[in-house]
Each structure stands twice: as structure tokens, then as C-alpha cells.
Design brief:
mainly alpha, two-stranded antiparallel ribbon, 80% helix, 258 residues, Four Helix Bundle (Hemerythrin (Met), subunit A), globular, 8 helices, disordered C terminus
């Protein structure tokens, strides 16, 4: 019986692990394409890698086979696709004319902040964290936002136009800081309409964004990413402000009573 149970578990683990491998493979191919100057195609592969990253974890949880190995393996794949790839993109596109030290420093930001972000996530997950949000911007969203900037400018201005390097480097720094911040960003919704109103609304928004992306491609991806980031920063600031006001309000009341 134990052997059969073990074999069934291995068979179930095959599906999410294959998606994780595909995630890593797409990231590797994206690096090759960037080295060949095919930045647009590399961006498309990063988007596909993001989908693999969403579904491997979802499938593992649905099948009830989440494991520490799967968590670590997924993080290693994410390091390739969403940390190394954007660092290579920054070095290839946006640091021309800077000193070697500045070029390497700016290019290193997605890799170093991304790996810190992944390490923090693994620690939270090991503590059996069941929250429906991430603390700090996730590495896939950060990488896709950077690529969306490149794709947006390429579609507007045509071939060989990938956006102002100064704006891109500012975006790189901001995304790096957001990855290691304490700001809350919602996780991808469960693929069901039976998990509450909030999840259903997020799922509808996800479907709408996916359809819009297929229709308008690079034109809509950057606005979607920026809206997601800015909206959640504002929500987090409002919640933090309310939490900061409450103790002050209590203290004021006590002072008046005294």
C-alpha cells in the first residue's frame, strides 16, 4: 500500500514539476533571444513563463502535493526567468553610455532584489503562511512590468525603439525597492467562482486582462501592470494610515479624560 501511495504521489508531482521546468526553460531561451537582439520575442517568453509559474503552484495545491522541494524548485526557476532574464535585458538595452560600474550595478538590481524577495517568500511559506497576498511585489510581476515597458514602447515607436533608458532605469530601481518592501499585493486568484466575492472579482479581472492582452498586446500590458502596482500601493497606504490613526485617537481620548 505504501508503495502504491508513493507512486501515485510521484505521478501527481510530475505535472506541476513539468510546468516549473517549462518556466525555467522559457527563461533560458529568453536569455538566448536577448543575446541575439530579439527583445520582443524574449518578452513574450517571459509572459509565458509567468503563466507557468501561476499554474504550477495552483495545480500542486489542487492535487494536495505541495512540498518543500516544489517550493525550492519553483524559486530556482523563478530566479532564472524573473531575476536573471530582466538583469540581462537591462544590461543589453538600457545601460549603454554609462560607466562599467554603473552599468553592472543597474543591471544587477533585478537579480539581487529578486533573489532577496524569493528568499523572504520561502521563509514566509515555511511558516505555513496562508495569506492571500504577497508581502512585496512578486518577481514575476516585477519582471513582466519591466518587459511591458519595453514592449509598449516598441509597439508605439516601431522596431529598435524600446523606451527612454533613463525612464527604464528609474523603473528598475522602483521595482527593486517594491520587491523588498512591506507593501501587500494580492496573489493570483483561485481558478473558481466558489471561493468568495473577492476571489471572483479578481478572477474576472484576470480574465479581462488576459483577453485584452490577446487583443491589444503590448499596448495594454504596461497600463495593466502599472494599475495593479499603483492601486495596491494606494490601498496599502490607506490601510497603514488608518492603523496609525487609531492609536493616536485612543491616546487623545485618554488625555481628555485625564
Amino acid at each position: 500500500m505504501k508503495d502504491r501511495t508513493y507512486k501515485r504521489k510521484l505521478n501527481k508531482q510530475f505535472f506541476p514539476n513539468i510546468l516549473t521546468i517549462l518556466n525555467m526553460f522559457l527563461g533560458f531561451i529568453a536569455i538566448v533571444l536577448i543575446m541575439q537582439g530579439e527583445y520582443y520575442n524574449a518578452g513574450v517568453l517571459v509572459l509565458l513563463a509567468g503563466l507557468m509559474d501561476i499554474f504550477d503552484g495552483k495545480i500542486a495545491r489542487i492535487l494536495g502535493i505541495s512540498s518543500k522541494f516544489g517550493l525550492e524548485f519553483d524559486s530556482l526557476a523563478d530566479t532564472v526567468s524573473f531575476c536573471v532574464v530582466p538583469s540581462v535585458l537591462v544590461y543589453a538595452l538600457y545601460v549603454d553610455g554609462l560607466s562599467p560600474l554603473l552599468s553592472v550595478s543597474f543591471s544587477f538590481i533585478p537579480l539581487v532584489f529578486g533573489t532577496i524577495r524569493l528568499a523572504k517568500y520561502n521563509l514566509d511559506a515555511s511558516d505555513d503562511n496562508t495569506k492571500n497576498y504577497f508581502v512585496g511585489l512578486s518577481t514575476p510581476i516585477a519582471a513582466i512590468t519591466l518587459f511591458s515597458y519595453m514592449l509598449f514602447n516598441n509597439q508605439i515607436w516601431g522596431d529598435e525603439q524600446y523606451g527612454d533608458p533613463r525612464t527604464a532605469l528609474i523603473l528598475v530601481v522602483l521595482l527593486g525597492l517594491l520587491m523588498v518592501s512591506n507593501i501587500h499585493f494580492p496573489k493570483a486568484p483561485l481558478i473558481t467562482f466558489r471561493s468568495g466575492i473577492t476571489n471572483s472579482l479578481l478572477l474576472l479581472a484576470f480574465i479581462f486582462c488576459a483577453v485584452a492582452l490577446v487583443i491589444w498586446k503590448g499596448f495594454v500590458l504596461l497600463p495593466i501592470c502599472m494599475t495593479y502596482i499603483i492601486w495596491n500601493i494606494v490601498l496599502w497606504m490607506i490601510k497603514s494610515h488608518h492603523q496609525a490613526i487609531k492609536p493616536g485617537h485612543v491616546d487623545k481620548t485618554n488625555y481628555l479624560r485625564d
